[in-house]
Design brief:
alpha+beta; Sulfite Oxidase, Chain A, domain 2; 2 domains; 5-stranded antiparallel beta sheet; 4-stranded mixed beta sheet; binds the ligand Nc1nc2c(c(=O)[nH]1)N[C@H]1C(S)=C(S)[C@@H](COP(=O)(O)O)O[C@H]1N2; binds molybdenum atom
Length: about 250
């Protein structure tokens, strides 16, 4: 790509709209993006490509800065947000439920043992509890109490390849998200069975959600159906629509 001086007055109406969108998001001007990417951005596909490359770059920087030993802040019981907000890509009335006794977590990909897991089996593993802040990109945050099995312990049990790059989550409400292995092994990443010291209710992801306080809300999958260990970049429901893949909080 050729380096060109960025001339904002030479923008087409279409690109002017793209620029306004970028500025509104508080992100970056087209000129800034053009400088950072070293490309003349003279059409919308060009802008999209440059943005995707930037996103890739910020994902890598975030991954480098992430430490398995740096913990998300924990709070006191008195600080728990009540009522805790519900959010999904649909309204609360449309929440899907399953029979907890019949539910099994599917296990796929780079693991030694692919047998599905029941809730009773998860209850036999060590549990951890956390009171942490959930941050949603839609502009709200809330403090909640979750407990369950650390994902790292589950990955050991199924003989997962810990050198694989990604852990992918598929949900039975047709949602999905995925995380890097360092986050999967983080001590506060837990396969949640309980919310507020009682069985996880339908609104918050029954029968299982993955609570990841080092990630933004959309990377905390509810209604878990399957887990896959993989080296193939998995993306996710919101990530495929342009949300940052790393999504650190
Ligand atoms: N399966 C599933 N998980 C999901 C979502 C969803 O729509 N479906 N939404 C995500 C988003 S954007 C947020 S903010 C949180 C909301 O979780 P809560 O209802 O427990 O507050 O769930 C995340 N996990
Ligand atoms: Mo969210």
């Amino acid at each position: 790509m050729n380096r060109m001086k960025f001339d904002p007055t030479a923008l087409s109406p279409e690109l002017r709209r793209v620029e306004r969108r970028l500025m509104l998001k508080g992100a970056l001007s087209l000129g800034g993006l053009s400088m950072l990417s070293g490309c003349a951005l003279d059409d919308e596909p060009g802008v999209e490509r440059a943005l995707a490359r930037m996103m890739n770059f910020t994902d890598r920087i975030q991954a480098m800065l992430f430490s398995r030993h740096r913990l998300a802040r924990e709070f006191d019981a008195a600080q728990i947000t009540r009522p805790f907000p519900f959010n999904a890509y649909y309204a609360e009335d449309d929440v899907r439920t399953v029979d907890p006794a019949g539910w099994r977590l599917e296990v796929a990909g780079l693991v030694a043992d692919r047998r599905p897991w029941s809730l009773a089996a998860f209850r036999t593993l060590p549990q951890k509890r956390q009171i942490t802040r959930h941050i949603c990109v839609e502009g709200w945050s809330a403090i909640g109490c979750w407990s369950g099995v650390p994902l790292s312990i589950f990955l050991q049990h199924i003989g997962a390849d810990m050198n694989a790059k990604y852990v992918n989550f598929r949900c039975f409400d047709d949602y999905s998200t995925s995380i890097d292995m360092a986050t999967a092994l983080h001590p506060q990443t837990i396969m949640t069975l309980d919310f507020d010291d009682a069985t996880l209710p339908p609104a918050y992801g029954a029968p299982m959600k993955v609570r990841i306080p080092t990630k933004l809300g959309y990377k905390n999958p509810k209604y878990l159906a399957a887990i896959e260990v993989t080296n193939r970049f998995p993306g996710g429901y919101w990530e495929d629509q342009g949300y940052d893949w790393f999504g650190g909080s």
